[in-house]
Design goal:
By secondary structure, the protein is α+β, with helices and mostly antiparallel strands. It has helices at about 1-30, 200-220, 225-254; strands spanning about 35, 45-55, 65-70, 80-85, 90-95, 95-100, 110-120, 125, 130-135, 140, 155-160. It has a 5-stranded antiparallel beta sheet, with no helix packed on it. Strands 1-2-7-4 form a 4-stranded antiparallel beta sheet, with no helix packed on it.
Length: about 250
């Protein structure tokens, strides 16, 4: 009888151990979120470096890309990449940015830093983040606490201290004008006609003016004009001579 009780106690202890391990694993998975921090976490701080760390959760795929929605008060054009894994690139999006590249090794955490032109005058900043693994799996760290309860996939939140005395917002960055790149021609032709507007039309106008001037000078120097004048003069002289001859003959006869 005592042995049976001992076996039952041992079995119960084993079940409790497995349950505790499962709870611990679940807690580890939930805590493996994206973290954000900054040494200049202060409202209206300029050129602030903000660091992100993402814990890898997969043992078969590596972290490859992060897509971040910037909090209100930070424009995509005010953010630049300060540090990232080798080969990763940064690109602005309409509401934030993406950073990524060749996938990291499975199980390797990802870390990168951005520089913000100026942090807004706020108490906290929420950086909703989507992280993509090399197998295409996406983890969405975008949830906010509700009724004080920690969400399963919390968004990274940076707490800010009050602005320094006298700190003021800087003027917004002026976006660079968008220049449309010319469309490549699949088979460029050297005899392509120039455009009817813009600088390309200038040679055509100049060529037309030159051609008109050339035609006018050729008309004024043409040999046809003197010939016509000479023929007209000869005809006039012949008529005058004939009139004079008839008049002379009439006078002689009388």
């Amino acid at each position: 009888m005592p042995n049976r009780q001992i076996r039952r106690a041992a079995r119960a202890a084993t079940v409790l151990a497995f349950t505790a391990a499962a709870v611990a694993l679940a807690g580890t998975s939930a805590s493996a979120h994206v973290q954000v921090e900054s040494e200049t976490a202060q409202a209206l701080a300029t050129n602030a470096t903000v660091a992100f760390t993402a814990e890898a959760e997969s043992t078969t795929a590596g972290l490859a890309k992060f897509q971040v929605v910037l909090p209100e008060g930070i424009a995509p054009g005010d953010v630049t990449l300060a540090e990232a894994p080798a080969g990763w690139t940064f690109a602005a999006t309409p509401d934030g940015y993406t950073v990524g590249g060749a996938a990291l090794a499975p199980g390797k955490d990802a870390a990168y830093k951005i520089t913000v032109r100026q942090l807004p005058d706020a108490k906290e900043l929420v950086f909703k983040t989507l992280e993509t693994y090399s197998d295409g799996h996406i983890e969405r760290w975008i949830e906010l606490p509700k009724a004080g309860a920690e969400p399963e996939h919390p968004a990274p939140v940076l707490k800010l201290s009050p602005a320094a005395p006298g700190a003021t917002p800087v003027a917004p960055a002026v976006p660079s004008p968008t220049v449309a790149a010319p469309s490549p021609s699949p088979s460029p032709s050297p005899s392509a006609s120039p455009s009817a507007s813009g600088p390309a039309a200038t040679p055509s106008v100049a060529a037309t003016a030159a051609a008109t001037a050339t035609g006018s000078s050729e008309d004024s120097s043409s040999p046809v004009v003197p010939v016509v004048i000479a023929v007209a003069a000869a005809a006039v002289l012949a008529a005058v001579g004939a009139w004079w001859w008839r008049r002379r003959n009439r006078g002689t006869g009388s």
